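Researcher: For the annotation table, I need structure tokens for MFS transporter. Please keep the output clean. Sequence:
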Amino acid sequence: MSAEASKWGTLAVACTAMLVLSVDLTALHLAIPLLTRELAPSAAEILWIADGYGFALAGLLITMGWVGDRIGRRRLLLAGAAAFAVASVLTAYAHTTEALIAGRVLLGIAGATIMPSALALVRNAFTDSAERTTAVGVFAGVGGLGVGLGPLLGGALLDHFWWGAVFLVNVPLMALVVGAGLVVLRESRDPRPGGLDPLSVLMSVTGLVGVVYSVKEAATGGLSLVPMATGLGAVAVLVLFVRRQARIADPLIDVRLFRIPAFSGSIGVNLFAMFALVAQSLVFAQFWQLVLGWSPWEAGLAGLPGALGAMAGGAALAPPLISAVGRAKTIAAGLLLSACVFAAFTGFGADLEYWALLPFLVLNGLGMGITMAVTSDTILASVPKERAGAASAVSETATELGGALGMALLGSVVNAVYRSGIDTPEGLSDTASALAEDSLPGAYEAASTLPADVAERVLEAGRLAYVDAMHAALLCSAFLSVVAAVAALYSLRSVPKELESVGT
């Protein structure tokens, strides 16, 4: 196979793998109402089902980036793709809430082997600066497309099959990744690998998972002793981890990379951007179905324009905008566009006309697609080529950690505002009242046991409370996007438009 064919084949394989991982991040969201009826998870367990995948990814990406740099990114990606297919089958046939959460965690572990390897392989295949920017834009755009396709694909499957089908679709796609990858991918690794420091691995996983757990528990259950102690302990572990990386000969992360403004600034922007973005998928999935009464397919189709906007923003608009105004202003413009859209979303409620919302969905996708494409390219181009896996892992860790924290905190904002705002009818039993006040899916469960007239009043109260809760979460997303835009303008102000890859 020629070098040119191998280069573009690498991009196709990496994009396919990224598409599956992105779809898996959101495909389950539309199944939440079905899961509620079948497995009866609590509101906290619903968040764990949604978050377990992202939490496992965030905890292990750094380690897997290091492993890929050492044993070979091609080898790790292919092994991870096969493991992801197996874990998908196990998750699809989970029959308890606990088993489903465990399956999501297994998928996250397998996904952690794929994400940094895929992006690093793309970075190493494209050495020309202009081609690399375009390729990374396509890769980031596909990631955004997958987040939007997840609900669409999930909706199509849920209209005809049981909820586990949203995981089984991963199996043939990952088989395609393995088969094509064996043919087109060229191995790349760090030519001067060092030894693995098990203590660093333990510290990174413990610290990251501990921080996420403590924030999640504090957000859902209040500032009790256990989450506060866990959070403080996790932060202390991460501080010790960073200090250890600066001292040992073979660090898991080269902390010197954070001295590069282009690298550290883009990492920070990624975290804030994903914090603002990912929670929307879960929020809108329930809004489409439980407030507007749409089918899973209709709900998935509603999010597709935003996904296509993200693809267009990353692949088509980001490169010319960089040439026109520079990287910092391009990133800030994308974030500010999304912030305006988040704020505009609060003008829509239960009487929504979808066609009025459509332009805003596209604009939001464009903004986030532009932002993620430029930050991803800047991160990869600012570090030595042999450290591409580690740099990709740090980038993906910030992305996944931001998404997981956004899901936990903004999801908890939704729960808190809903519970404080719902006004249930008088005369309900304690059980029905508790269900309705816990969450909107709980209101539907309570309504199923009540007379028709009372049930409708309960559902109307739940829908109104959920719309208010959704608006609160969207305003938080708008604020975070503005913060990220300001941070980008400051931290990336000295980064040139044309950023040649280091070490090529």
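Researcher: And a one-line annotation?
Model: Residues 418 and 466 are 5 Å apart (CA to CA).
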